[in-house]
Write a structure and sequence with these properties.
Layout (H helix, E strand, L loop, with lengths): L2 H14 L6 H20 L5 H22 L4 H21 L3 H7 L3
């Protein structure tokens, strides 16, 4: 499973189980994704296109984090998270192996 997809699914599941999602929580994941994608690109483990396309997930999570800080409704945040989930699925299909490499940096 795509690491970004896994992160997004985890956030969606936490919200559906009643756990509050904070902007700080999202910002930690955004930071991880950002730094890791840069390392992967610099190490030529992913193409520049994969790097740029993956940035849309990072950017989307940044928007969600900002909306949480602004106390936007859960319904709107849930909708955005579902959109990001779809994007992450598409990324995994477009760049097979991206997930394994991204997740390998987590440890």
């Amino acid at each position: 499973m795509n690491a970004m997809l896994s992160s997004i699914k985890s956030i969606i599941e936490r919200k559906s189980n009643g756990t509050s999602i904070t902007s700080e929580m999202l910002n930690l994941e955004i930071d991880y994704i950002s730094k890791t994608l840069e390392l992967m690109r610099d190490a030529q483990e992913i193409s520049n296109d994969a790097y740029l396309d993956s940035g849309s997930i990072q950017g989307g999570l940044t928007v969600v984090s900002s909306l949480i800080e602004q106390k936007i409704s859960d319904a709107e945040i849930d909708s955005l998270m579902e959109t990001l989930n779809s994007r992450a699925i598409n990324l995994e299909e477009k760049y097979p192996g991206l997930s394994i490499i991204l997740e390998s940096y987590r440890n």
